[in-house]
Amino acid sequence: MTFSIVGISEEDNPMTTRNVTLHIAAFIGVLTLGPSTLLAAGVGGYARDLGTTAKRIVEGEFTLAPLASVAFCMKNTDQCRDTGGDVVELTDARQGELFGVNSKVNRSIRPKNDSPTADVWSVDVAAGDCEDYALTKRKRLLELGWPSRALRMAVATTPSGEGHAVLVVRTSQGDLVLDNRTSQVKDWAKTDLSWLKMQSSNPEIWVSMQSRPNRPVLVSERTKDHRPARVMRKPPTPVAQVFSDIGIYDTRK
């Protein structure tokens, strides 16, 4: 993809006896699919990486939202509302919804990078790049009744340094990542991504996050020898609201 600040993930978990039937069905279903670069992870991805010990993402300081995210929320206010909730109990039914949405959206969108000079975040597209996949998955889960605070857009970089965006879902089995690069739903701590930032409980306000699971995240306390270049102790006013207040763009129409 082409935008400058964005993220993604990976990991494993053994099948349980009660899930054998589901996995056999998934295996048969995958055999009917044609080759796809978006399904490179294989059949095992349908039930891997969902462990019982949840290691949560540590949220850092409030930070600036990606500009393309601001523009998206200005145009798609229904997708940026705070509908409450937080951690979703990952029942068998919810797990089925999560895996189904991830796999279906990965197959339904044709990979296409944005122009190097114009990063546009979109939803429900026939072709698009990583954030378009993630936004479409988020919309599908919202339509299924998942709460907005459990569905967080996040940006990071891949091992090659490429910007990447994914959907992080807060569940009772951990913070899980839905990535267009694979059919697997993975724990955030077991991915190959270096994380940058993610949405807070308010979809229009973003927070920094630890780049890797065992690394510290930017916090408010400054020390004499290390003073972060930018620390925000209060959430910034969403840019869309600033534009509305000064009459550049009326988001309240």
What is the secondary structure topology, with strand pairs?
Blueprint: H1 20-31, E1 59-63, H2 67-75, H3 92-108, E2 110-111, E3 127-128, H4 130-143, E4 151-157, E5 163-171, E6 174-178, E7 185-187, E8 194-199, E9 206-209, H5 239-245
Parallel strand pairs: 2-3
Antiparallel strand pairs: 1-9, 4-5, 4-8, 5-6, 6-7, 8-9
**Number of helical regions:** 5
Q: Quote the beta fraction.
A: 15-25%
- What is the overall silhouette? globular
Query: In angstroms, what is the radius of gyration?
Result: 18 Å
Query: Unreliable runs, pLDDT <50, ≥5 residues?
Result: 2-49, 218-233, 242-253
Cα(first) to Cα(last) distance is 33 Å
Your description of this structure?
The protein is of the alpha+beta class and 253 residues long. Helix content is 23%, strand content 17%. It contains 5 helices and 9 strands. The protein has a 7-stranded antiparallel beta sheet. A hairpin with a 2-residue loop joins strand 5 (163-171) and strand 6 (174-178). Helix 3 runs antiparallel to helix 4 (130-143). The radius of gyration is 18 Å and the shape is globular. Residues 2-49, 218-233 and 242-253 have low confidence and may be disordered.
Short description:
By secondary structure, the chain is α+β, with helices and mostly antiparallel strands. 23% of the residues lie in helices and 17% in strands.
Which tags fit this structure?
253 residues, 17% strand, alpha+beta, globular, disordered N terminus, two-stranded parallel ribbon, seven-stranded antiparallel sheet, disordered C terminus
